[in-house]
Amino acid sequence: xxxxxxxxxxxxxxxxxxxxxxxxxxxxxxxxxxxxxxxxxxxxxxxxxxxxxxxxxxxxxxxxxxxxxxxxxxxxxxxxxxxxxxxxxxxxxxxxxxxxxxxxxxxxxxxxxxxxxxxxxxxxxxxxxxxxxxxxxxxxxxxxxxxxxxxxxxxxxxxxxxxxxxxxxxxxxxxxxxxxxxxxxxxxxxxxxxxxxxxxxxxxxxxxxxxxxxxxxxxxxxxxxxxxxxxxxxxxxxxxxxxxxxxxxxxxxxxxxxxxxxxxxxxxxxxxxxxxxxxxxxxxxxxxxxxxxxxxxxxxxxxxxxxxxxxxxxxxxxxxxxxxxxxxxxxxxxxxxxxxxxxxxxxxxxxxxxxxxxxxxxxxxxxxxxxxxxxxxxxxxxxxxxxxxxxxxxxxxxxxxxxxxxxxxxxxxxxxxxxxxxxx
Length: 424
Prior knowledge:
The protein has about 425 residues and is of the alpha+beta class. The protein has 3 domains: about 25-155, no CATH class; about 160-230 and about 335-424, no CATH class; about 235-330, no CATH class. The protein contains 17 helices and 8 strands. The protein has helices at about 25-40, 40-50, 60-65, 105-110, 135-155, 170-180, 180-185, 200-210, 215-230, 235-250, 255-275, 295-320, 335-350, 355-370, 375-390, 400-410, 415-420, and strands spanning about 55, 75, 80-85, 100-105, 120-125, 130-135, 275-280, 285-290. The strands form 3 sheets. The protein has a 4-stranded mixed β-sheet with strand order 2-3-5-6, with no helix packed on it. A hairpin with a 2-residue loop joins strand 7 and strand 8 (about 285-290). Helix 1 (about 25-40) packs antiparallel against helix 2, helix 10 packs across helix 11 (about 255-275) and helix 15 (about 375-390) packs antiparallel against helix 16 (about 400-410).
């Protein structure tokens, strides 16, 4: 059973101008609208079963009881009862300090709804794709059947998604957002969601705490600044790539791995010989000793192993179309800069910044990326190599495969921002 808008008012005499078509914010709302227009409620539930549903909560309560979900119903005139309003991703308002949102699947709502909870669920109330559903045990069993079918389909979250209303598609902000698109496509999130909620307030805070050790605004600001300055990426990785980049310029062509390793060793040893440093301290003039042979030999061996790893990744990149034949990665600063674009939005989802501050951070990430790279493909190869060097351990597992899949989508899909937003 579903309640939707009733018949419209009678038309005035004479010809009427056609009503403008509704622009759905994302494909989710468009699919709901299409199913509703056909009266196909099974299809409507199929869409809901694959989507996240967001409900509002007060920030004070969310902070006081982290991880606890509270239903805050409103009184609806049409049902004459309390209703719980749930919104799909494209219908969310821009983040503000209060309220905050929490998200769950249709299956979660079906399993956790209790007898004292509202008798109706209102999906996107007030919009053309709205619908109202009773929440009795029998109706919730229907929700669960659709959720089970969605789970059995094995449909991947990975995909190119965008907001067609409420998210920039062109211009500098869109460019900065597209610098984080590899992760957003891999996670199945709208790449241009500047007004970002993530999976909700508490999950955003929990994720930043677990993976970044960020628990407050100051921690977010520090991480954002370091990423934008490409200050988190390993100096050793950048050293090895800089040696090869310099050689490629000098010789105007490919650089063999053996030559690369040999020159890297000479540079390291030369730097070590110059390593004695004179400093003026309160105790007088002191001179530090250069590193010993054992330490230098260890550094050389480590960099040469790294060069081998990079060469093997690049060979796989060429085989998989991430690099052109003969291409190489110039820098892995993209690994930081792409995450800087994402971090701006992650911080907004956790309310460690406001929308304006997040937008400025995205713009800075975009400018830094343009200064460091020549194209989307160049940027992408640097990002993927940085991710692999940090996490993959040459397993070519999901840390690698997820990014290659996202790279292919972004470089081939006609709707991709990388196909529609010029790099420069």
